[in-house]
Amino acid sequence: MIDVLVAGGGPAGLATAIHAALLGLEAVVVEPRTGPVDKACGEGLMPAGVAALAAMGVTVPGRALRGIDYLDHRGGVRAAFGHAPGLGARRVALHEALQERAAGLGVKTVTGRVTDVVQDRDGVEAAGLRARWLVAADGLHSPLRRSLGLDAPPGGVRRYGLRRHYRVAPWTDFVEVHWSRRGEAYVTPVGDELVGVAILSAARRPYDELLADFGGLAGRLRGPAVTAVRGAGPFRQRARARRAGRVLLVGDAAGYVDALTGEGVSLAVRSAEVLARCLAEDRPEEYEGAWRRLSRTHRVLTGALARVAGRPGTARLVVPAARRLPGVFASIVRLLA
CATH code for 2-156+234-336? Predict the structure, then answer.
């Protein structure tokens, strides 16, 4: 019998399989797509995420990031991460690095999709396989979370993300967050001649229309757009719990607040380590509390910022407030990092 069956071969699922293998467990990943998978995300890794990947033996090519700039049409404020840098990296490069590490540790990947799940006191049957544990890493709108009755009403403002890449030399080694009344634009250097621009907003409008809200930024993007627009959302998703019997949720499937603070991958990788250790030590009941402790800062700060960002009347006050209180802004950035 397999020790850990992972439904979903994205970063959270692969990280779970890698940590399971490092702890001596047999892990199998079930994923319907082949090859590195792209996704609409900001592609900036916080320092904690970079460190967590390195601890797994995963190295991702990209550009070092020194911190975050908040900007609007009146100016901005900057905060450095501290001693360790973040990383701007294409999502496909991250995925490929995780796939290679997993394969090197003997993790098997099966092409398929986990739909029906049958549990008993000793194990789980899914996708024609039997395992001691099933980890649902099937994304933001997790079908497994829904089928297990773990979906909870999301509440809050429904926000969406759109991302495109431009062939232009990065003009900074900071992530730039440009604020407008309708949303934010995240500019992340991901190559020597490539930047990614992700726009987050509650307004469901075409990418170019939303980009026009950021006049100064649009003027810098002289290089051609080299990727198609990708979308994601609505972001906020809630789970009633992270476990149902022998099935446990990780990554976006475990619940998601917003992409605003860029912690999604970092939190997923760190949660995967906690989950794998709970399973290796036969302590699955401890995962819920461990996940809540690990994600508490992210949930509180990101939730507060998302509520502010979701309303035009308060969104316009974010950058002025950060400029007036640069020490507070820097502390928040370092705390998230």
Answer: 3.50.50.60
